Amino acid sequence: MDYYGQLQLPVSQILTTNVDHFTEYDREDLEYYTGAFLIGIRSDGTDLYLLKPDRYRKCSRRKTQAGLDLAFNNLFENGNVRFYYGKDGIVQFVLRFYAIQILKEYSSQVMARFQRSKSLTTK
Does residue 122 belong to any structural domain of this protein? Predict the structure, then answer.
């Protein structure tokens, strides 16, 4: 079963308004997506964040950080009560603490490209 199919039941148990956002936009984003993602669910909406490795490839450090901060705010400061993590075709419930850790790890990987080496012999 695809990501969207795996999320239908848990989302329907919480989401009571703005259901069309999930059934249209989130479904479209997840339809052919096979990478990792986080989704936060609350009674009046969902916040889906695709953890694409190259999402900020062409962005400056400032824009990249702003995008990651926005993702954090949408997922964790928006009233979401349940979190799910999808990876390798499997969706699983995760505690808020672990969802934060997943996003922090992703953020560290994304921001690593801005790190400068202090040595001529290391990368």
Answer: no
